[in-house]
Specification:
single chain; alpha+beta; ten-stranded mixed β-sheet
């Protein structure tokens, strides 16, 4: 199976489609749900083309908290079915589909003399209810151990930077953490390509109907009719721009990038209760490179949808205040070395807070024959993709993706792009040669996450630009 994505393959497959070849399934959107749908369809033996106006994981799929979670918040909101679905999908991803992309993440809820007794009882009950779901989903206790109470001394050992005054201990639980969300999307795309799917970035769908789409090659400025027997709209928060009947209420989730080593964070995440709420928490999430993500907010987005959402200063203040409540050293703006925000494509239902909207996904067949899939969470992408392809009504067998291991690239020892960093020259070359990167920003912002920190981006830019330019000049044969 040829899993490599590069400029040469793109040109060849784009030419085939422009010449009038009809595919069974056209998927629009290169986020986790779109590439998941492409893989699901291709693995069933269908011919597939996926078009993405920009790049793989350009939108929400690279701006998540990087968690593969068991739906504890859904359980707290009384949606047992959705929580169970999330727990099942987490187990599938961690044990069979992508164990190389997910690690077991310990998470600590600190308990202090300032923690209301009711909150502590509710949190503990919630964690044990979540563990019942883990068992019901048949996920091994070795992979995700049951929650337990820890002493103050053990809590500090797990999180050395924890605030110690009034500390009475903590509640320790376990969940899944992605190495990187954009990396998951690329692995899905390459796996789909191995099954024959045509994964075409920088190709914008301008009009959709049940028989295909009018698409434009953004690089070549060439438009043509892409013919398909069925069409899936998986464009996330932009879904309503292609299908008028789809109504969404996007919600902004902001994160800050911090130096985890400086803050005394090691491999255990901190789950910090938000004052005045029983079921909402902020998260301090340590990363493998020593950085830490502090998130996240849940605020409605009004007006036009931006290509890349920004983090407002109000979100920065909120996150710093909540994070500081759990750390020995209060956070200031000097600690913020980067920031990012993603937009949740929530299905509109009423006028309440976006935090109260269901995270269920919806598969909607439009009057023009286009099937749109929206809502949901990264953890349940596989189920969303399956439901979307099932809804097409094509004569195929059942979904196979529960038992397909995603592509895993080999590790190559090489010189790092930045001194002491984890991204190497080999990573940059592989991004262009095998992972479909067509521009410097594809490498900096999605195949690697160097672009999350402005200082890292500036330092890496000259060498990455040189490597990408040479690689593209050789037409993918680097």
């Amino acid at each position: 199976m040829d899993t490599a994505l590069n400029v040469a393959r793109r040109a060849r497959e784009l030419a085939e489609l422009a010449d009038g070849r009809t595919v069974d399934v056209l998927v629009v959107g290169g986020g986790v749900t779109g590439v998941g749908a492409a893989l699901d369809a291709a693995a069933r033996g269908l011919s597939v083309a996926l078009v993405e106006a920009r790049d793989l994981a350009f939108g929400t799929s690279r701006f998540s908290s990087k968690l593969v979670h068991g739906g504890l918040r859904y359980l707290a909101n009384g949606d047992v079915a959705l929580a169970y679905e999330s727990a099942v999908e987490r187990g599938v991803l961690m044990s069979r589909v992508a164990p190389h992309l997910i690690r077991t993440l310990p998470q600590l809820i600190p308990l202090t003399d300032r923690t209301p007794a009711r909150n502590a009882v509710v949190a503990r009950a919630g964690l044990h209810a979540g563990d019942l779901l883990r068992r019901a989903a048949r996920t091994s206790g070795k992979l995700l151990p049951p929650p337990r109470r820890v002493s103050a001394a053990e809590a500090v050992a797990l999180v050395p930077g924890l605030r110690r005054d009034g500390l009475r201990g903590g509640l320790l639980s376990f969940d899944g953490q992605l190495v990187d969300d954009a990396r998951l999307v690329v692995a899905l795309a390459r796996t789909a390509a191995g099954f024959g799917a045509r994964i075409l970035t920088r190709v914008r769908a301008e009009e959709l109907d049940g028989d295909g789409a009018l698409v434009r090659d953004v690089l070549g400025e060439h438009s043509f009719r892409l013919r398909a027997r069925s069409v899936v709209n998986a464009t996330g928060v932009w879904a309503g721009e292609l299908v008028d009947s789809v109504r969404l209420r996007p919600s902004r989730g902001s994160h800050l990038v911090l130096d985890g080593v400086r803050l005394g964070l090691t491999g255990t995440a901190l789950t910090v209760p938000i004052p005045g709420s029983l079921n909402r928490f902020a998260l301090l999430l340590p990363q493998a490179n020593g950085r830490c993500y502090l998130g996240l907010t849940d605020e409605p987005l009004d007006g036009p949808i931006p290509d890349v959402p920004t983090v407002p200063e109000s979100d920065v203040d909120f996150l710093l205040d909540v994070g500081s409540s759990a750390l020995a050293r209060p956070l200031t703006r000097d600690d913020v070395i980067g920031r990012f925000a993603g937009l949740r494509p929530l299905v509109a239902s009423g006028s309440g807070k976006t935090a109260d909207l269901s995270r269920r996904h919806a598969v909607v067949a439009g009057p023009n024959g286009v099937v749109t899939v929206v809502g949901g969470k990264l953890t349940t992408y596989r189920r969303m993709a399956k439901d979307a392809i099932d809804a097409l009504g094509l004569a195929t067998g059942p979904s196979r993706t529960k038992d397909i291991r995603l592509f895993r690239h080999s590790i190559v020892d090489d010189e790092p792009v930045l001194p002491g960093g984890t991204v190497t020259r080999a990573d940059v070359l592989r991004a262009v040669r095998e992972e479909g990167a067509l521009a410097v920003e594809d490498v900096l912002d999605r195949r690697t996450r160097l672009g999350l920190v402005d200082a890292d981006r500036a330092a890496a830019l000259p060498e990455v630009t040189e490597l990408v330019t040479k690689c593209l000049a050789e037409f993918g044969r680097c």
